[in-house]
Automatic annotation (TrEMBL):
Domain Helicase C-terminal per the UniProt entry, residue ranges: 61-162
Coiled-coil region: none
Species lineage: Bacteria, Pseudomonadati, Pseudomonadota, Gammaproteobacteria, Pseudomonadales
SMART domains: HELICc
Name by which UniProt lists this protein: ATP-dependent DNA helicase
Length: 162
């Protein structure tokens, strides 16, 4: 008889995936070892009232805090929700940390620029990489010491993946 083995770290619901693999009405064995890793999470907000549009002086606090955090770590990955914010953060952090220490990563950049940024981060040559969802799935970027999320991500699953 034909044997099928399905492996995944991300597919849910597992029962639906198993039905897809073996067909409706057939039985199979599901082995779900689960995986819960400890998370070290902190939430930081500027020490001013939050509003829909942050003032420039509040953004300065954010840039300075990110630069401070990046200085305390070997590699830092900063996720943002828009390409525009990725470019803006990249510019402001470059002013604080040096042009060669910071790069942006988003879908509007040429593939060779994105790959170069990924490799520089992986080799430890890049201090900070600011990325949109373009870096979120299926890319091996090696060890990252710190991950920051600016603003709320679009979903809980995106947040956990990041």
């Amino acid at each position: 008889p034909l044997m099928r083995i399905g492996l995944s770290a991300t597919q849910k619901p597992i029962e639906a995936v198993s039905r897809f693999l073996v067909g409706e009405g057939r039985t199979c064995e599901i082995v779900d070892i689960g995986h819960a890793r400890p998370r070290d999470l902190d939430i930081e907000v500027p020490p001013v009232p939050l509003s829909a549009v942050m003032a420039n002086d509040v953004w300065e606090l954010v840039y300075n805090r990110l630069a401070e955090l990046a200085g305390e770590h070997r590699t830092t990955l900063v996720f943002v929700n828009t390409r525009r914010l990725a470019e803006r953060l990249s510019r402001h952090l470059s002013e604080r940390l040096g042009k060669d220490a910071v790069a942006a990563h988003h879908g509007s950049l040429a593939k060779e620029f994105r790959l170069d940024a990924e490799q520089r981060l992986k080799r430890g040559e890049l201090k900070v990489l600011i990325a949109t969802a373009s870096l979120e799935l299926g890319i091996d970027i090696g060890d990252v010491d710190l991950v920051c999320q600016i603003a709320s991500p679009r979903s809980i699953s995106a947040f956990l993946q990041r």
